[in-house]
Amino acid sequence: MRPPTNRPGTAGPLHLLVLVAAGLLAALYLAWRTLAAVDFLYPVLYEPAGIGAHIDLYGPKNRYKRGFAETTRAEREALFSEIARSIRNHGRGLESLTYHDRNGRELGVLLRSPEIIHLRDVATLVHRLEISGLMALAVLAFHVVFLRRRGLRLPGAGRMFFLTTGAVLLSAALVLVSGPRRVFYALHEQVFPPDNQWFFFYQDSLMSTMMKAPFLFGYIAVALVVLALIYLWILFLLASAVTARQSPPPP
């Protein structure tokens, strides 16, 4: 009589749902941190997004600040980097940002009070999302260990990835159909405090002008999704490898 074999089972739908949800959030967190390390590609996107020409057009039209069109590209990239760093540091230092002309002469304070308040709201949101991303990484790791100890294996990484990617692409298609700008504004209305200004005309905000908001954010969103999918593929490969089991050879 053949002795029973201890063949591994396959993780059920609930396990897969946890892994996919945690994997997506963890991948977005890793992509976000990667883009943050390179200033969200602002120096790379400066020319393709037409930021320089945009500043040349709207900088002189600002109703509150003067001389921003006299700044250099290097100065603008440095200011964007400082804003991004401040957002990841709970908004500290935003009020002290100043801009200079090509000779190093200080021209003024970059941000007005409503812009600082908005960027601090952004910093609070980013902090919460980063905590969620770290928690997702922890959930993913502990769940994979749990599955390994229970002898449960995952479907192939390719299958999980393509199913998840399909859902992501469907969501992206819905955003495109609805209108990216409309979705962008709707999210702002839901996420940020109603009494705090989040929409700024270019003539009123050097922040919006130097970022060419919201157009720059569209480029960054595409980079974020692409990079997140790469991280998701890597995470699924690792999860599948960790939970893989070799069936015992027949007697």
| Average pLDDT taken over every residue | 88
Pick out the low-confidence regions. 1-7, 246-251
Domain tally: 1
Element-level helix/strand string: EHHHHEEHEHHHH
Count of helical stretches:
9
Distance between the termini: 10 Å
Beta-strand content: under 5%
- Principal-axis shape equals elongated
Cross-sheet strand order for the largest sheet: 1-4
Number of strands: 4
* Category from helices, strands and their pairing: mainly alpha
Biggest sheet statistics: 2 strands, parallel
Q: How large, in whole angstroms, is the Cα Rg?
A: 23 Å
Which range best describes the helical content: under 10%, 10-25%, 25-40%, 40-55%, 55-70% or over 70%? 55-70%
Oligomer: single chain
Outline the fold blueprint.
Layout: E1 9-10, H1 13-37, H2 42-45, H3 51-58, H4 73-87, E2 98-100, E3 106-109, H5 113-149, E4 152-153, H6 157-178, H7 180-191, H8 206-211, H9 215-243
Parallel strand pairs: 1-4
Antiparallel strand pairs: 2-3
Helix pairs in contact: 1-5, 1-9, 6-9
